[in-house]
Amino acid sequence: MKLHADTLGKGRVMSVKPMTRLVVLDFIRIGAAIVVFMGHGAKQYSINYHFLQPLVNLRENAMTLFFMLSGLVNFFAYHDKNMMNIEQITKFYKKRIIALIPLYLLIGTIYVISLGQAHLLDNIKLAPVELLGIQTMFESLFAYAHNGGTWFISCLLLGYFIYPVIQELIKKSSKKCRVLLMIGLSLLLLYFSFVVRWFSLSSLYSNPIFRSMEFCLGVIIGGVFDADSNRSSRKRNIQAWLSLSLTFVVCLYLLYSDVRIWGFYSYNFLRHPLLSVFMLSACMIRIKALERCKLLRYASTVTYEFFLIQLFVWKITAFVIDILKMPNRNISRMLVSFIIAVLLSCFLHEIYQKPLARLFTQKWKLAK
User: Fold this and answer.
1) Cα–Cα distance between 278 and 184 in angstroms, integer?
2) Are 122 and 179 contacting, i.e. CB atoms less than 8 angstroms apart?
3) pLDDT at residue 8, rounded to an integer
4) Nearest to 156 by CA among 76, 88, 99, 84
5) Is residue 367, in this structure, part of any structural domain at all?
6) What pLDDT score does 21 carry?
7) How far is residue 191's CA from residue 74's CA, in Å, rounded to a whole number?
8) CB distance 4 to 80 below 8 Å
9) What is the span of the domain harbouring residue 165?
10) Residue 368 in domain
11) Beta 2-4 vs 19-21: how paired, if at all?
12) How far is the C-alpha of 26 from the C-alpha of 115, rounded, in Å?
């Protein structure tokens, strides 16, 4: 993803300077998508990833990363815009609609037709809920309106809806205030895990308020990051690599050693503070050799499609293995499912998402 290398100072108008691609965030996005895929593969198709098997337990952490990344990337893309201007807000919402809704509607429709368990009358009753993307507002509807992964979009839409106000509040705050907000929100999200555990409440996995707070945490991290002071700073680049590596090693240790805190899996319980440090460190790293890598950029772009098509992959994989008379072994399921997921993602992106995005961008005159 790209950012404007601007100073995010209190009360100052931010100037637009040449854009830098933070390739580490691309790697994080791709890695999170693969972890989610592995989690689904283990749960729905009994795939064993051998020494990487513990990574399937990081699926919830990967989803948290997606929401935080969404907030972070949006701040980098729009922080130099006045989001209190009605024209800018309208343009922002239109771009978000183009990026999310076409594929959301397609995947939801395919799911209802091919895999949905609800009766026709129930689907008709739920149509306004589906079309408006508010499934997650009704927690008990998760079994009916999960649609493979469209709950993710339902939560994300709320984050995008409140984004303009959040951005302007962050821009007007001091650097110290942003740091305190980042720490405070990370601890508050950590506290929510206690509340759920103490009172045996339902999971917050698809709770739109909880996910929107993760989205806001990403926005705040974007505000804490000072792009201008990081440019051409070899020392800070090294410090960021050390911080990122240390956080990564701590996460892996907590995962593989099965450390628990008051009965909680520590890698899950501590994910918001750890991922905040992880993301902030990632923002400070420059890898100039990969900033123009088209393959990396493309792989990062199609993670949206890769996430949404996963629920359909497993039955297609079983069909392909059967047709080709391949041995139904673990390695066959692992490789074939991943190849099918990648091919379907690229197909949907090239044949459906990209043409529609280009069409509506031209129609709504959103091109820069």
Assistant:
1) 16
2) no
3) 36
4) 99
5) no
6) 80
7) 26
8) yes
9) 2-362
10) no
11) antiparallel
12) 32
What's the pLDDT score for residue 7? Answer: 34
pTM attached to this predicted model: 0.89
- Residue type, position 79, single letter: H
* Per-residue confidence (pLDDT) for residue 193, from 0 to 100: 83
Question: Six-digit token pair at 194?
Answer: 């206690």
Establish if 209 belongs to a structural domain.
yes
**How far does CA 219 lie from the centroid of its chain?**
13
- How many domains does the chain divide into? 1
Give pLDDT, residue 233: 72
Which pLDDT does position 333 carry in this prediction? 92
Write the secondary structure of the chain as one string of H (helix), E (strand) and C (coil).
CEEECCCCCCCCCCCCCCEEECHHHHHHHHHHHHHHHHHHHHHHHCCCCHHHHHHHHHHHHHHHHHHHHHHHHHHHHHCCCCCCCHHHHHHHHHHHHHHHHHHHHHHHHHHHHHCCCCCHHHHHHHHHHHHHCCHHHCHHHHHHHCCCCHHHHHHHHHHHHHHHHHHHHHHCCCHHHHHHHHHHHHHHHHHHHHHHHHCCCCCCCCCHHHHHHHHHHHHHHHHHCCHHHHCCCHHHHHHHHHHHHHHHHHHHHHHHCCCEECCEEHHHHCHHHHHHHHHHHHHCCCCHHHCCCHHHHHHHHCHHHHHHCHHHHHHHHHHHHHHCCCCCCHHHHHHHHHHHHHHHHHHHHHHHHHHHHHHHHHHCCCCC
The stretches in the chain having pLDDT less than 70 are 1-19, 142-149, 226-232, 263, 368
Query: What is the rounded CA–CA span in Å between residue 45 and residue 254?
Result: 26
Within 8 A by CB and 6+ apart from 325, the residues are none
Q: How far apart are CA 219 and CA 223, in angstroms?
A: 6
What contacts 298, CB < 8 A, 6 or more positions away? none
CA pair distance 74, 162, nearest whole angstrom:
12
Q: Indicate whether 218 belongs to any domain.
A: yes
Name 261's bridge partners.
264
| Spatial separation of the C-alpha atoms in residues 71 and 75, rounded to whole Å | 6
| 251, 257, 259, 265: CA torsion to nearest 10 | 70
* Number of residues that this document lists for the chain: 368
Q: Report d(CA 147, CA 106) in Å as an integer.
A: 11
Are 198 and 173 a contacting pair, CB within 8 Å? no
